[in-house]
Structure formats: structure tokens, C-alpha cells
């Protein structure tokens, strides 16, 4: 963050200074919404959630080094008091961004955002100072926090932009106007909130490319018809990436290697280079191509992009995270979130990784699927059977039961079990596991199956 005095921040936000003895005190470090993440010289942002009120942790945050608290009421320690913390945080980020000049890259899509963001950051940071979204902090709170980590030395600002509803991306792009925008795909994540159909999801995701300036760049997935349909919604120069022959940045000679790790020939307008990813799953090719399209647009050569991708490692937990046990059991923790597209990718990755080993899928519900939820869960169950996965444990009541029933009715040899909850899934899976098995654990984040993956890894 560029250093700012409390008095200056108060003027920008129209905030009242409460319990502030030194208005000229400098804020020099990033902000945090979790008091455990406070660093000396930063701001503590007191947000109010469903279960936790950040104002209750204000004193601890200041004791741990926060210069002040951004709050909606006095808290007994130095504070900048505003009517609403969330828009104030966004306003501060927008103000600060106006005083530095990084290349702002916005990235959205139904699946793959975090992995693509992590890949891109690892490519770019080899060449210039780069700030990227931490974990999946991609909303109206997380994005400003990311912006406030940047300073005058930052050349690339990589912002993962999430959208749960129409209008979300318009708001985020107003806070941090991107010059480069990437749309990965359109899928059924948040389909209910966005209107009920994939066309509604596309309308929401396309807000990113609509926000790009005439001298900007829109990077669109050539393999997704909904994304290609956004070409007419942007004033920016369009680059298509993907496995399609007509893509400007594309993959040729895609191969799958031991451990389900893909490789491909990266083809760009300026050259070609071989990419061998350390990530698992063939779907990672598309994520890598999106990162490559951005890096190429920013002037990196094909060799520089390939070197960065080849050196990249998984950074975010809960996304095809490999956990190995001493008895040879491999746990694949992909329980950060789930929707039909990521379920399909995860199950295909499980079968590729398992090979001749016995495979087990521990699956919970996919949220936000609306009236089609039961059908979509049944389709997942059918895919489990068709892929030849040996064991399915469906966790929870309702839709997971439909998943189990469909897998069973396919009569293709999968052994199906039901678990009432996460604890039941742990007990059931632990009793069924044999040395050498490969297990995929996946569900929407609110199900909490990540705990199951870690318990099984410790068993």
C-alpha cells in the first residue's frame, strides 16, 4: 500500500476520526478483515458477518499493530468511522489505485478462476513485481483488499473477480478498472442467483469485457460458445485462446502423463514452446492457455510463458490438492467448491490419476442448482458409473441420494454407499479404504468435506 496518513484517509472516505490521538499517523501496510492477519502498520477492516462481528476484535487488532480500524461505529481504539465499511473499503482501493499505475488484469469464469490466477501470477512475477488475489478473495471485500496490497512498484495487478449475481462484475470493475479482461467459461455455478439459465450466467460474466477500454484487451475462451458470444460486447481488442484451431493462442499435441499431468505445445502469434504442467487434470490445459494468453498480450515470449508455466505449482488449497498416505492411499482434496462442470473435471481427473488402482469418490451436494438440482446430481451419479469408478460415497440427504440412486441404477459395477454427514463419510471411507486406493473428495464448500479429506489423509 502507498503510505497514507489517517487524516488523508478520513478525507477520502468522509470518515470521522474516533479515539485518534495522532491523525498524521501513517498507514503503510496492507489491510485485513481477519484480526489474525493484521500486520503492523496496516488497517483492520471491521466487517459484520452472519456469525462474527469484526468490531469485537478491534482492540486486539490495534494491540497487534494495526494503526487504526475502519469501522461503522466507535470501538474504543483509533478508528475511521463510516456509515458502511464495505463501500468505504472499495472507495479507498479506487483512490489508491488512481495514484499508482499497474496493468490491471481482471479474470472471471464459472470454474478455474483461482487456478488460472495462480498460474498467471507465477508467470508474471518472474518478470516484474506482481500482486494477485490471495486464495479466492474475489468479492466486494476481497478485491479491495488485494488492490490495497499494491504499491508504486507494482507492475501487474491480477484480480480474480467473482460474480454471484448480475451487476457484481460491474461493481468490481468500477473499483478496479481492468485493461485486460479474461473470461474462462460459462457454467452452472450461481445459476439460480443469476436468473436460472446459462444465458443469464453469460450476461453476468460479460460485464467484465463490457468494462474494458478501447485500448484494452479481451481474452476469450474459443472453446466455450457462450464466451465467444461476448465478442460483440466489448470495445477492446479480442484475442481467442483455447484448443480450437482458430484460436490465436492455442494448445497442440496435448498429452497426458503419469500422475494425470498434462503437457502441450503452446502456439502463440510470436512462437511455440512445450508446456509440461505440474498440476493434475486435462482441464488444466484450458487454465494454462488463459494465463498464456494474458502473458502473451503483455509482451512475454512463448518461451518465457512456457518457462513460467512449467515452474508453476499449486498455490491454493482444496483444489485438486494431493495428500499422500504412508500406505499408498492418495487423497485428492477438491472440496473447496463444486458445480456440474468442476464435478465432471474432478471425476475425470480421478480416473486418470487412478489408472489401474482402485478409485473412490466421496461426493456431497452442489449448491445453487435450483429446479434442476436433482437432475444435475443424478447426472453426476451416472458419470461416476460410466467412468468405472469403483466406490461412491454420497454424503448428505436430498440431492446426494439422487446421485447415489443413479449410480446404482446404471448397473455398471460401482459400489454405492450413503453417509448422513461429514463425520459419517469419514468413518465409512476409512473402513473401506485399502492400500493404494485413490480417493476424490468433492462438494460445495458449505458442506465442509475438506475436513473429511484431511481426516482421511491422517488415518
Automatic annotation (TrEMBL):
GO terms for molecular function: UDP-N-acetylmuramoyl-tripeptide-D-alanyl-D-alanine ligase activity. Keywords: ATP-binding, Cell cycle, Cell division, Cell shape, Cell wall biogenesis/degradation, Cytoplasm, Ligase, Nucleotide-binding, Peptidoglycan synthesis. Residues 33-75 form the Mur ligase N-terminal catalytic domain. It catalyses: D-alanyl-D-alanine + UDP-N-acetyl-alpha-D-muramoyl-L-alanyl-gamma-D-glutamyl-meso-2,6-diaminopimelate + ATP = UDP-N-acetyl-alpha-D-muramoyl-L-alanyl-gamma-D-glutamyl-meso-2,6-diaminopimeloyl-D-alanyl-D-alanine + ADP + phosphate + H(+). Residues 318-444 form the Mur ligase C-terminal domain. It is an enzyme of class 6 (ligase). ATP binds at residues 109-115. Its EC number is 6.3.2.10. It is found in: Cytoplasm. It comes from the Bacteria. Residues 108-295 form the Mur ligase central domain. Pathway: Cell wall biogenesis; peptidoglycan biosynthesis. InterPro entries: Mur-like_cat_sf, Mur_ligase_C, Mur_ligase_C_dom_sf, Mur_ligase_cen, Mur_ligase_N, MurCDEF_CellWall_CoF430Synth, MurE/MurF_N, UDP-N-AcMur_synth. Involved in cell wall formation. Catalyzes the final step in the synthesis of UDP-N-acetylmuramoyl-pentapeptide, the precursor of murein. PANTHER family: UDP-N-ACETYLMURAMOYL-TRIPEPTIDE--D-ALANYL-D-ALANINE LIGASE. Belongs to the MurCDEF family. MurF subfamily. This is UDP-N-acetylmuramoyl-tripeptide--D-alanyl-D-alanine ligase. It comes from Nonomuraea mangrovi.
